[in-house]
Write a structure and sequence with these properties.
disordered N terminus; Ccc1_fam; transmembrane helix; manganese ion transmembrane transporter activity; transmembrane; mainly alpha; membrane
Length: 248
């Protein structure tokens, strides 16, 4: 008796990692770097655009606009870099402290730590027998890594890097800030503000899309939210500039 190939039961093929989902090591630092880059560029665009548009609302003097824009760019870039460094350094210090505590507990009371790890897997749905087996095998392979990931959500081999976040934030802020600064300085007086607004809105649409892409969120909402925030900032600063400019 022969069996036709078309009647053979389907054999499940091994399923690899989804192409659109990250599974590799070093993910934490890369996401941290990307987050700082996107947010830095976005802040550079919005803050510098608001500044130069506000000054343009008060005066048509190209030099005054340029000086204000350069000062805002430098101050903003340094502030972003320092802020990211302090923030991520604090996070890294906390991670080191938690890992040190976990090492001490593993050395002083390994059996209690094993039971705690097994209980975590029981809470996730495994039977007590299987949870204990999994906990033992993971502990034998890498005790600190297993406990840190399950209990603390930390990968000891992929701690946050404050310097990468600081540099990414500072450089991306500078790149983002250059767009509205160069646009409003190079365009003739009568078209400075409208051309800058269009350029800024386009750039914010791009950073909004990028933030959604890296965060696996809905792109449309992120883009519209970004554009609306930038337009509102420029409108407010332009009106303030016009008001102040007419009073001086």
């Amino acid at each position: 008796m022969t069996t036709d190939a078309t009647d053979a039961p389907d054999v499940a093929q091994p399923v690899g990692p989804h192409e659109d989902e990250p599974h590799d090591s070093g993910l934490n630092n890369r996401l941290n770097w990307l987050r700082a880059s996107v947010l830095g560029a976005n802040d550079g665009i919005v803050s510098t655009a608001g500044l130069v548009v506000g000054v343009a609302g008060a005066t048509t003097d190209r030099t005054a606009i340029l000086v204000a824009g350069i000062a805002g760019l430098a101050a903003g870039a340094l502030s972003m870099g320092a802020g990211e460094y302090v923030s991520v350094s604090t996070q890294r210090d906390s991670e080191h402290a938690l890992l040190a505590k976990e090492r001490r507990e593993l050395a002083e009371d390994p059996e209690d730590e094993l039971a705690e790890l097994a209980d975590i897997y029981v809470q996730k749905g495994l039977s007590e027998e299987l949870a204990l087996q999994v906990a033992r095998q993971l502990t034998e392979h890498d005790a600190l890594g297993a406990h840190a990931e399950a209990e603390l959500g930390i990968d000891p081999d992929d701690l946050t890097n404050p310097w990468s976040a600081a540099w990414a934030s500072m450089l991306s802020f500078t790149v983002g800030a250059l767009l509205p600064l160069l646009t409003i300085v190079l365009v003739v007086a009568g078209w400075r503000v409208p051309v800058t607004v269009v350029a800024v809105v386009g750039a914010l649409a791009l950073t909004g899309w990028a933030s959604a892409r890296f965060g696996y969120g809905p792109a449309k909402k992120a883009v519209l939210r970004n554009m609306a925030g930038g337009l509102f900032a420029m409108l407010v600063t332009f009106l303030i500039g016009q008001l102040v400019g007419t009073q001086i």
